[in-house]
Design brief:
Length: about 425
């Protein structure tokens, strides 16, 4: 409050001074006549770097100020702040914060201590100063003031009637602190009892995923998104850029990179998004078939036949085969085979050797992860060897027929997939 009032008084006082100056213009050298300051109006420095501000000034040198020994002061303009001079010089108080001076009796602002230096010799009209290790808070405008031992006091500031603009300093900075915030909104109804991974970057299929990239840097940054090196979303100027995946699918899983750039550099941040989903059938097949005689020859030609869920399969007694059931899922699905005796086998592969009528029945493959399950089923029929069997089960989809040639090594395998019209020609099947 007090400082505000005081600056108000000062402002009024200055208005009065200016008024007087205008009134008396040309009659008497007064006020600002004879005072000049030559310095760049605006300068930019990179954070942490050093800024040299060249500056020259003149002051009215009439008989009263001749041979006056004076001190120089650089002040940072700041609304509501003021500096009151100490020691022998009674200069009262001025607006702003003192940052550099040739006057040892004064105390500069703490943040400017040992960083701001007046390098010019004020008695030679040199008001140059430097800012070392520039900080973001150094940004602002600065004005120069002189005070002599014989009563000369002058501020090269518009606040005090001087018309030249202050020296304005901006501090630039390459991109810093690039961060990605991930918000995953569960698509499932609230209260769902399903267990889920609480890791912030793991989404379930169907979830909404919001990625928010934030960064610091001056001047304004450009923020862009990339997914697995491909550009996505819209580049944005400023300190944040959001990207939303409205209903996550497997395709949305991958590396998301946010890049922040300005003239002073670039920085990135990457997150890995995992999309989890229930098992889906990838493979349901007979991966290998062995002929019954000779048994399990290693180099016997391999045959892989894909099975349709609910397939009916006919083999001959003594045949051996391997069934393969694989589901794609994230987290990876576990596979359990259940045979007609309801025995469970935890493996993707089910090996059936030397088949007999006892092995006939339903084979079920069950795949699970915490998000769900998928099943595959097949019916196996075993034909007895010996006299050729004329009776076949109903709705046979696949018949595996092995024929041995004269040379056992050169055998021929025929896999006949029968269509429904073929079924019409067959006899009625037993139940
Ligand atoms: C003013 O002082 C600075 C720092 O000492 C110096 O580099 C510069 O040359 C001087 N300027 C003039 C015009 O003498
Ligand atoms: C296959 O099973 C039959 C009947 O159980 C048996 O006689 C035969 O030795 C078995 N063959 C092989 C190769 O295990
Ligand atoms: C396969 O068939 C079984 C029984 O008809 C069914 O429960 C299961 O959902 C089916 N699986 C697939 C992947 O279609």
């Amino acid at each position: 409050m007090a400082s505000y009032r005081r600056s108000a008084i000062w402002a009024n006082l200055m208005k009065l001074t200016m008024l007087t100056a205008c009134f008396c213009k040309g009659i008497e050298s007064n006020g600002i006549v004879g005072f000049t300051l030559t310095a760049p109006a605006s300068l930019s420095v990179r954070r942490g770097h050093c800024l040299h501000i060249p500056c020259q000034f003149t002051y009215r040198s009439d008989s009263s100020s001749m041979n006056e020994d004076f001190s120089a002061y650089w002040l940072k303009d700041q609304e509501g702040a003021e500096y009151c001079f100490q020691g022998a010089i009674s200069g009262g108080c001025v607006q702003g914060l003192l940052v550099a001076t040739s006057d040892d009796a004064q105390r500069v602002e703490r943040s400017a201590e040992n960083r701001f230096f007046l390098t010019g010799n004020p008695n030679k009209g040199n008001c140059s100063f430097i800012i070392t290790e520039a900080q973001l808070e150094d940004e602002g405008s600065y004005y120069f003031r002189i005070m002599g031992d014989k009563g000369l006091k002058f501020s090269y500031s518009t606040t005090y009637g001087y018309t030249s603009p202050h020296v304005s300093v901006t501090v630039s900075e390459g991109p810093q602190d690039v961060k990605i915030k991930v918000v995953i909104i569960n698509s499932q109804t609230p209260g769902s009892s399903r267990k889920r991974d609480l890791g912030a970057k793991v989404a379930l299929e169907g979830d909404t995923v919001r990625l928010l990239c934030t960064a610091k840097g001056r001047p304004s940054l450009t923020l862009t998104w990339k997914k697995d090196k491909e550009s996505i979303g819209i580049p944005k100027q400023g300190n944040e850029n959001a990207y939303e995946i409205s209903s996550a699918t497997l395709k949305d899983a991958g590396k998301y990179k946010c890049q922040a750039e300005n003239d002073f550099g670039s920085a990135t941040e990457t997150i890995h998004l995992i999309v989890q989903y229930p098992p889906r059938f990838a493979t349901f097949s007979i991966s290998q078939i062995f002929e019954r005689d000779p048994p399990l020859i290693q180099d016997f030609p391999r045959v892989t036949v894909s099975l349709v869920n609910g397939s009916r399969l006919v083999v001959q007694e003594g045949d051996s085969l391997q069934l393969l059931c694989k589901a794609d899922g994230n987290p990876p699905a576990t596979t359990v085979w259940i045979n007609p005796m309801l025995e469970k086998l935890t493996d993707e592969r089910l090996e059936l050797v030397n088949l007999t009528a006892k092995d006939e029945g339903q084979y079920l493959c069950q795949t699970d992860n915490f998000l769900g399950s998928a099943q595959g089923m097949l019916m196996l029929f075993v034909e007895s060897s010996g006299a050729p069997k004329m009776i076949l089960p109903a709705n046979v989809d696949i018949i595996l027929l092995f024929q041995l040639g004269i040379n056992k090594m050169s055998c021929c395998i025929c896999v006949i997939i029968l269509c429904n019209c073929w079924n019409l020609n067959r006899r009625k099947a037993p139940k």
